[in-house]
Design a protein that fits this description.
InterPro entries: Aldolase_TIM, DUF3463, Hopanoid_synth-assoc_rSAM_HpnH, LisH, Radical_SAM_PqqE_MftC-like, rSAM, rSAM_sf. One of its GO terms (molecular function) is catalytic activity. Its cofactor is [4Fe-4S] cluster. Keywords: Iron, Iron-sulfur, Metal-binding, S-adenosyl-L-methionine. This is Hopanoid biosynthesis associated radical SAMprotein HpnH. The protein starts with a helix and ends with a strand. The chain is built from 13 helices and 11 strands. Helix 1 packs across helix 12. The chain has one domain: TIM Barrel, CATH 3.20.20. The strands form 2 sheets. A 9-stranded mixed β-sheet has the order 6-5-4-3-2-1-8-9-10, sandwiched between helices. A two-stranded parallel sheet has the order 7-11. By secondary structure, it is an alpha/beta fold. Helix content is about 40%, strand content about 15%. Bound molecules: iron/sulfur cluster. The site of iron/sulfur cluster has 13 residues, from loops. Iron/sulfur cluster binds next to loops.
């Protein structure tokens, strides 16, 4: 697994405390802090950059970011966007969160990384999570601009040379080729990234390309083909149970409160992907959202095919630390590799954990 022991320790002690001492069912694991929506790319599968100009100009201040992080209390803060490196105060935001010992995943397309890297200091708390949707041809097509893959590779090399933690962050859509994805994993592994993150794309209603989103069975098939006889040197920045979920060895219900989202509108109900209103405080988000209306079990059509990382990985972590079966499954998958059904398998998994 591509996650340092100190981070695993922080997460495991936090989860155990929430579950068994505080008896808190709706605890946050990763805060999705969106300080701005503007970006220097216009990707076809993105649901964030279609806001009008006056919204794209707005951004959270350093104080607003710090307050949201403290209010939420999650040990991990993921900073997506938009493109966070466009925020003039991002180095200060990172510095304040590092002081608070939060593990930060600063998600970037890396276009500005070489230019801005001197504004950041290497730390075990800071990871640059580089958006890479495949090899050069696939990535440049996904981001709708030539030359961005090369730019991102240059950014990864500079960040690694300077001693930063670096992961990649890949979203896969219908038509992804398993062989090419495996070659992409080999390339990233050769570069020396700490781990790779994966997610099937979510069918944002605002995304310009509505034809390329995966249905649940297509997701299983794709990941079964990608993960069968894996290269042993691949490292993923995920719970191994999440990889088993993607490949349909096991099913998890979504726990959207595990990855709450804060942005210029407030706390977003119920998750990073849907916008069913906003609350002023994190407590209101937790108390006022009807969580039963979301996830596959709810029969909400907007959740039917959703298998994204931000909705489901918190469930796998909760299962690991909340049940003996989840714990033993994680230990087994960590040492022996995740269980992946054969590509031709028609298996539909039953529920392992969740609501
Ligand atoms: S299943 Fe997906 S869309 Fe539905 S609440 Fe969970 S993360 Fe959001």
């Amino acid at each position: 697994m591509g996650i340092p022991i100190s981070q695993m320790w922080t997460v495991s002690t936090y989860v155990l405390k929430q579950k068994f001492i505080k008896r808190n069912k709706h605890y946050p694991l990763v805060l999705m802090l969106e300080p701005l929506f503007r970006c220097n790319l216009s990707c076809a599968g993105c649901g964030k950059i279609q806001y009008p100009g006056h919204i794209l100009k707005r951004q959270l201040s350093v104080d607003e970011c710090v307050q949201a992080v403290e209010e939420c209390g999650a040990p991990i803060v993921s900073i997506p966007g938009g493109e966070p490196l466009l925020h003039p105060d991002m180095p200060k935001i990172v510095e304040e969160l590092v002081k608070r010992r939060k593990y930060i995943y600063l998600c970037t397309n890396a276009i500005l990384l070489e230019k801005k890297i001197e504004e950041y200091k290497p730390s075990k708390y800071l990871t640059f999570s580089i958006h890479m949707d495949g090899l050069e041809e696939e990535h440049d097509e996904a981001v709708c601009r030539d030359g961005i893959y090369k730019k991102a590779i240059a950014g990864i090399k500079v960040a690694l040379d300077k001693g930063f933690r670096v992961t990649t962050n890949t979203t896969l859509f219908l038509g992804a080729k398993p062989d090419r994805t495996r070659m992409f994993f080999d390339e990233m592994t050769k570069l020396g990234v700490e781990g790779m993150m994966l997610s099937p794309g979510y069918s944002y209603s605002k995304a310009p390309d509505q034809e390329s989103f995966l249905q649940r069975k297509e997701t299983y098939k794709l990941f079964r083909e990608i993960f069968h006889s894996p290269n042993k040197s691949w490292k993923f920045n995920h719970s191994p149970l999440f990889l088993e979920f993607l490949a349909g060895h096991r099913h998890y219900e979504c726990t959207p409160w595990g990855n709450p989202t804060y942005n210029i509108f407030g706390w977003q109900k119920p998750c990073y992907l849907l916008q069913k209103g906003y609350t002023k405080t994190f407590k209101e988000l937790i108390d006022e959202t009807n969580w039963d209306e979301y996830g596959q079990k709810s029969n909400n059509p907007e959740c039917a095919n959703c298998m994204v990382h931000s909705g489901h990985e918190a469930t796998t972590v909760d299962h690991t630390f909340g049940t003996l079966g989840g714990f033993l499954g994680t230990v087994r998958a960590t040492f022996l590799g995740p269980k992946i059904p054969k590509p031709e398998s028609q298996k539909i998994p039953s529920v392992s954990g969740g609501k």
